[in-house]
Amino acid sequence: MEYIDPELEELMRSNLKVSKENNKLLHKIWKDVRYRRFIKFFYWVIIIGLSLGSYYYAQPYIEKAIGIYTSINQKVQTTGNTLNMVNKEAKTGLDAGVQTLNNVKDVVGGLIEKITN
After folding, report:
1. Is 106 a member of any domain?
2. 3-state SS record for the chain
3. Does 61 fall in a domain?
4. Could you list the residue range(s) of the whole structural domain that residue 41 is in?
5. What are 52-74's pLDDT values in tens digits?
6. How many folded domains does the chain comprise?
7. For residue 77, is it within any domain?
8. Which H, E and C letters describe 87-103, residue by residue?
9. Is 92 inside any structural domain?
10. d(CA 10, CA 17)
11. What is the pTM of this model?
12. How far apart are CA 98 and CA 100, in angstroms?
């Protein structure tokens, strides 16, 4: 067997000790990384699951709200169309009334002219 310098042997032993400690720390770090990945995956599974479950649970209420909104929108449009029709009829009626008043004015004016002559 060869002779190894005691100082060199001590350095090798301390290097081996540090390497073993580093190896233990790396294994702990890797376990922590795997644990955190699992927790993060589980976290997202819960978030997505709750979101889908909430939508499934709330879907009838959402559809009912959409139906109510559509019904109200249709009624507002129907009311608007009716008001437009009334406005047109009123304008037509006013135009006819003005024409009638003009005719009456002409007739009365003609009568007054005949009476004064």
Report:
1. no
2. CCCCCHHHHHHHHHHHHHHHHHHHHHHHHHHHHHHHHHHHHHHHHHHHHHHHHHHHHHHHHHHHHHHHHHHHHHHHHHHHHHHHHHHHHHHHHHHHHHHHHHHHHHHHHHHHHHHHC
3. yes
4. 1-84
5. 999 889 999 999 999 999 999 89
6. 1
7. yes
8. HHHHHHHHHHHHHHHHH
9. no
10. 10
11. 0.45
12. 5
